[in-house]
Write a structure and sequence with these properties.
single chain; alpha+beta; five-stranded antiparallel sheet; two-stranded parallel sheet; 7 strands; 22% helix; binds zinc ion
Length: 142
């Protein structure tokens, strides 16, 4: 089965690219490497080949400063929390996790990788074919 990325994930990544064309992509990723494949991960294709996670490098401005990702993650989190955006299952960034399961409240992330170089976003299975625009102010939305 040929791996394919969730349409929601493709859309979100495109909005990052459109808004921050000079962003650093060194820590970007979608399909799992061997390290990811060793454990269950949304970066690993499921039985139908769907991959439901992307990593976006923290350096949106292309440099360490200005550091825009914390504010942007907050906007995504608030949109999800409001219930207006339902396609994201969880976000991990800078030592914290925000998940649909816990209504996107800020919780300490206990995994080995703190995700301080990139932001991880996982998407729900129901969003596989939903590439609608994300209404995130810092990504061209309202
Ligand atoms: Zn990731």
């Amino acid at each position: 089965m040929k791996p394919q990325l969730s349409k929601a994930a493709i859309q979100l990544r495109e909005q990052f690219d459109d808004t921050y064309p000079d962003r650093d992509r060194a820590s970007d990723g979608w399909i799992g490497d061997l390290r990811h494949a060793a454990r269950k991960s949304d970066h690993s294709p499921d039985a139908q080949g769907w991959v439901r996670a992307i990593d976006i490098d923290r350096d949106l401005s292309g440099k360490a400063k200005p550091d825009l990702m914390p504010d942007l993650v907050d906007q995504i989190r608030l949109l999800c929390k409001s219930g207006l955006e339902k396609r994201i299952s969880y976000i991990i960034f800078d030592g914290f996790i925000y998940s649909a399961k816990f209504r996107f409240i800020k919780r300490k992330y206990k995994g080995a990788n703190k995700h301080d170089k990139h932001c991880h976003v996982s998407f729900k299975k129901t969003a596989d074919n939903d590439g609608a625009f994300f209404q995130i102010p810092m990504l061209g939305g309202q």
